[in-house]
Specification:
single chain, 285 residues, alpha/beta, Rossmann fold, 2 domains, six-stranded mixed beta sheet, four-stranded mixed beta sheet, 29% helix, 29% strand, nucleotide-binding, transport
């Protein structure tokens, strides 16, 4: 679905944001794009959406090059930026005006997703809504477009805790085997139990790209018992129940993926992460 080869991009010649990036992401999955603020997550999404032009390398979405801005591509791709302009329209008018650009849009599904977000009055003006509620309207609209590619930049920013739970529930219901969803965030806990694969962006490049099963096959997440081999622990932190560790999973022990621990481990021990998840295998199908 998404094929990025040797991608370079910089806002100034002496400051590269992305350098020699290679990344392949497949359909039927929700991919989490993680990284610190300012690391280039938004830039990468804009390159995938065709809103920014690479300085080198290529971006392909199926048979399309995003920067060609072909109608067939644009009508099958939805991009929700973190910040969006004020929309002085009622919810129903916004949907009516913009849905013409998306042939697969379903007004029935739009209303269903709005109800999931506890938004019942579609006559409300969007500029009168809170930031979080406006964002939920746009997420519901994007899902109702049934695009093959959906890009969400920090979608949980501005959402309260109940709304984040609603977001996870709605996304899990809406995504199918024909869609590819990329969610960018620096709030890694917000993607718990939602994403199928994880991409970590750091130091101008992809530090990690792997599906959840591969990660838990190679790494163990849980309480340490003091028996860990020297050098196997990539990261540890004190919790209420004891010392939580991320270690090499030599004994193939089952554990639940902890995204926050993984993120901290990746930034703490970059070298071990690159050894365990080689870049030549930066593909999630």
């Amino acid at each position: 679905m998404i094929e990025i080869e040797n991608l370079n991009f910089g806002y100034r010649k002496n400051r590269m944001v992305l350098q020699d990036v290679n990344l392949h992401l497949g359909k039927g999955l929700i991919h989490g794009l993680l990284g610190k603020n300012g690391v280039g997550k938004t830039t990468l999404l804009r390159l995938i959406a065709g809103l920014s032009f690479p300085d080198g390398g290529s971006v392909r979405i199926g048979r399309f090059t995003p920067t060609d801005r072909k109608v067939a591509f644009l009508s099958d791709m939805f991009f929700l930026p973190e910040e969006f302009p004020e929309i002085r329209l009622r919810i129903d008018r916004y949907a009516k005006i913009n849905s013409v650009f998306y042939p697969a849009f379903s007004n029935e599904d739009f209303r269903t997703y709005l109800r999931e977000f506890e938004i019942d009055d579609i006559k409300q003006r969007m500029d009168k809504l809170s930031y979080g509620t406006r964002k939920k309207v746009l997420i519901a609209f994007g899902l109702a477009c049934h695009c093959s590619l959906m890009l969400l930049d920090e979608p949980t920013n501005g959402l309260d805790i109940p709304s984040k739970t609603q977001f996870r529930r709605v996304m899990l219901k809406a995504v199918d085997e024909n869609s590819c969803v990329v969610i960018s965030t620096h709030q890694v806990r917000d993607l718990h139990n939602l994403i199928d694969s994880i991409v970590i962006l750091d130091h101008n490049n992809i530090l990690l790209n792997a599906d959840s099963r591969t990660i838990t096959d190679r790494l163990y997440f849980g309480l340490g018992d003091g028996s860990e081999q020297e050098g196997d622990v990539l990261y540890s932190e004190q919790g209420l129940e004891g010392q939580y560790v991320v270690r090499v999973n030599r004994d193939h022990q089952e554990s639940n993926l902890d995204i926050e621990l993984l993120f901290n481990a990746a930034l703490t021990d970059r070298q071990r992460i690159m050894e365990l998840f080689p870049k030549d295998k930066n593909t999630v199908i």
